[in-house]
Amino acid sequence: MAQNITIIQQIGLSVLAAASVAWVVGLVRILRRERADRAEWHALRTLRAVGRQAGPPAREEVALTEAERAAFAGLIRQLDPRSS
């Protein structure tokens, strides 16, 4: 090392170099694990053969009786915090 650098600066430089090496090693390990997980996920995806939906889903409608409508309205009144 250079003679005009103090021992504390040398120690700091060594610690910084060791931390940088540890950070790079950790980053490489994380990236490799993510790549392996992503490859496994792509291999397990089995719905590739199913076509995508071309448009919005069709509107579904259920006919309710008058008693069912009244029961639903009562339930909504019970659950509505503004009504209490």
Automatic annotation (TrEMBL):
Keywords, alphabetical: Membrane, Transmembrane, Transmembrane helix
Residue intervals passing through the bilayer: 6-28
Domain of life: Bacteria
Keyword Membrane: yes
Protein name per Swiss-Prot or TrEMBL: Secreted protein
Provenance organism: Streptomyces violascens
Organism lineage: Bacteria, Bacillati, Actinomycetota, Actinomycetes, Kitasatosporales
